[in-house]
TrEMBL record:
MF terms in GO: ATP binding; ATP hydrolysis activity
Coiled-coil annotated spans: none
PANTHER family: ABC TRANSPORTER I FAMILY MEMBER 6, CHLOROPLASTIC (PTHR43204)
Name the record gives this protein: Fe-S cluster assembly ATP-binding protein
Source organism, top-level taxon: Bacteria
UniProt record similarity statement: Belongs to the ABC transporter superfamily. Ycf16 family.
Pfam hit, one: ABC_tran
ABC transporter domain residues: 4-248
Keywords per UniProt: ATP-binding, Nucleotide-binding
InterPro entries (UniProt xref): AAA+_ATPase (IPR003593), ABC_transporter-like_ATP-bd (IPR003439), FeS-cluster_ATPase_SufC (IPR010230), P-loop_NTPase (IPR027417)
């Protein structure tokens, strides 16, 4: 069974149609890259799948593990196993990162009929993942994303993924604002999560991220729909030629 199946999806934001008939199937174990020019609707797609308010589906549907997610609230989608790493991670004043992570893990466990995680077990898991992602104690004691650099925010999101172990991960331009060192750390964290059961949708403008998170499939998104699909070599073609050809095709 496909992990994610998007069928002829149409969606609007503030009454304007942004997604205009998008179909895409992502199977367990696959990494799909979605590339395209600014304004194509890539981030709109990620927000629609995650269930963000203000994004209205006007046609088609999105299935997760065979279930239509239209009737699921954003928190239900998250506890079911859908994770969105934001292009611009939000700051949460007054909530320590450790507190946030434990609350998120316990919310997921309750949704699956499990008891809350033991404090020592949580700490052991956290320490192991901190080491993998080069995240110091001082950083996770601070409020979520408050005072973080761009690279720290993206590492914090990789930490959330590692702790929550979602089935489907959407990375919305996670390379935005990262230098090469930070990009390598974040990409290593993502690659460690690649399994036969988990799927990824990697949204990016640039081929450089795909040097580190190597996709199985690359899709060009322009004019609200996918206009071309291929293997990882398609990303190199886009890097060389740009999106002009596809923007004209979508017009």
């Amino acid at each position: 069974m496909p992990l994610i199946e998007i069928q002829d999806l149409h969606a609007t934001v503030d009454g304007k149609e942004i997604i205009k008939g998008l179909s895409l199937t992502i199977n367990p174990g696959e990494v799909h890259a979605l590339m395209g020019p600014n304004g194509a609707g890539k981030s709109t797609l990620s927000n629609v799948i995650a269930g963000r308010e203000g994004y209205e589906v006007t046609g088609g549907r999105v299935l997760f593990d065979g279930r239509d997610i239209a009737d699921m609230e954003a928190d239900e989608r998250a506890t079911a196993g859908i994770f969105l790493a934001f292009q611009y991670p939000v700051e949460i004043p007054g909530v320590a990162t450790t507190t946030f992570l434990k609350a998120a893990m316990n919310a997921k466990r309750r949704a699956h009929g499990e008891g809350e995680i033991d404090a020592m077990q949580f700490l052991k898991l956290l320490r192991a993942q901190q080491k993998e992602l080069d995240i110091p104690d001082e950083m996770i004691k601070r409020p979520v994303n408050m005072g973080y650099s761009g690279g720290e925010k993206k590492r914090a999101e990789a930490l959330q993924m590692a702790m929550l172990q979602p089935r489907f991960c959407i990375l919305d331009e996670t390379d935005s604002g990262l230098d090469i060192d930070a990009l390598k750390v974040v990409s290593d964290g993502v690659n460690k999560l690649r399994t036969a059961e988990r799927g990824f949708l990697v949204i990016t403008h640039y081929q450089r991220l795909l040097n580190y998170i190597v996709p199985d499939f690359v899709h060009v998104f322009a004019g609200g729909r996918i206009v071309k699909s291929g293997g990882k070599e398609l990303a190199l073609e886009l890097e060389e030629k740009g999106y002009a050809e596809f923007a004209e095709q979508a017009a």
